[in-house]
Write a structure and sequence with these properties.
The chain is globular and about 55 Å long. With 255 residues, it is mostly helical. The chain has two domains: 108 residues, no CATH class; 112 residues, no CATH class. Strands 1-2 form a two-stranded antiparallel sheet. It contains seven helices and two strands. 64% of the residues lie in helices and 2% in strands. Bound molecules: NADPH dihydro-nicotinamide-adenine-dinucleotide phosphate. NADPH dihydro-nicotinamide-adenine-dinucleotide phosphate binds next to helix 5, helix 6 and helix 7. The site of NADPH dihydro-nicotinamide-adenine-dinucleotide phosphate has 22 residues, from helix 5, helix 6 and helix 7.
Length: 255
């Protein structure tokens, strides 16, 4: 592994990556990412939805593992904890989540899979490179206020994200393919609690890590999910005449 980048160059790369995230955010506000309910054939060749999820999420995990395993001597209990939490998320998203989807023969555009692979390659590299080259945590930080507050957010976010992914997946009985109005819990407030949970989760991760690579991961998560929640919300309103008027897209009472 070539570990030659100095911190300033690394930081500048992250700023550049975050600026690209800003542009993607603006683009996604105009054009909903064409997967799930927004899939259309006009975006070119398609791939099986579940396979697409596995291929697009795997690089985020593989890259982090590569960097961490080639720099094992640098890690301590604090950095291993952060690395494990990141991997915990990715094991679910790459292998468990796609197997649980009730999307039958549904497909997604290869283009979307390719773009998501790039997103995960870069994020996995930035976070992995950070741990391999620059992380200087002390074990005592595990009992510090910042870690504990971040961990609370992370666990809270994971709980919401898993719970509401689960509720959405189970809106369909086995074999069904259509959409229903989700009800109950946070659905009383927002259309996409799963997306809200994921943003809370990565906010917690950024607080625990307290470094720019994790902040850029959070920024990209917001750039992806905030417009997606707005698109879903608009889609619900267009497709269900009786959609609850008071419900917001992603932030209760606000947005
Ligand atoms: P969605 O909420 O669009 O869909 C989740 C699952 O539930 C899909 O299988 C979907 O089917 C099904 N579903 C959703 N709404 C309904 C409904 N009203 N009736 C019946 N079935 C429904 O989630 P996303 O695809 O946007 O994201 C999946 C996960 O990935 C989320 O946890 C999200 O937070 C995460 N994610 C994270 C990103 C990041 O940048 N960190 C980026 C993108 C996603 P179908 O696919 O057929 O629509």
């Amino acid at each position: 592994m070539i570990l030659t980048m100095n911190y300033e160059t690394f930081q500048n790369l992250i700023y550049l990556w975050m600026a690209i995230g800003g542009l993607v955010f603006l683009l996604l506000l105009k054009i909903p990412a064409p997967y799930g309910r927004h899939t259309t054939a006009k975006w070119g060749p398609l791939i099986n939805n579940k396979l697409g999820w596995v291929f697009m999420e795997a690089p985020g995990m593989i890259l982090l593992l590569y960097f961490v395993l080639t720099s094992i001597s640098r890690q301590n209990a604090m950095s291993w904890t952060l690395i494990s939490l990141y991997l915990f998320h990715y094991v679910n998203r790459t292998f468990i989540f796609p197997m649980r989807l009730r999307t039958r023969a549904k497909k997604m555009p290869l283009l979307i899979m390719g773009l998501a692979i790039i997103f995960n390659l870069v994020n996995g590299t930035l976070i992995g490179y950070f741990f391999a080259r620059f992380a200087q945590y002390t074990v005592n930080e595990l009992i510090g206020a910042r870690f504990i507050i971040g961990a609370i957010f992370f666990i809270w976010g994971v709980y919401i994200n898993w719970d509401y992914d689960n509720r959405l997946i189970h809106l369909r009985r086995p074999g069904e393919t259509g959409y229903k109005i989700p009800e109950g819990g946070l659905f009383g407030y927002v259309s996409c609690p799963n997306h809200l949970g994921e943003i809370i989760e990565w906010t917690g991760f950024a607080i625990m890590c307290w470094n720019l690579a994790a902040v850029s991961f959070l920024a990209w998560t917001i750039a992806n999910l905030l417009p997606r929640a707005l698109s879903h919300h608009k889609w619900y309103r267009q497709h269900f005449k009786n959609y609850p008027a008071e419900r917001k897209a992603i932030i209760p009472y606000i947005l």
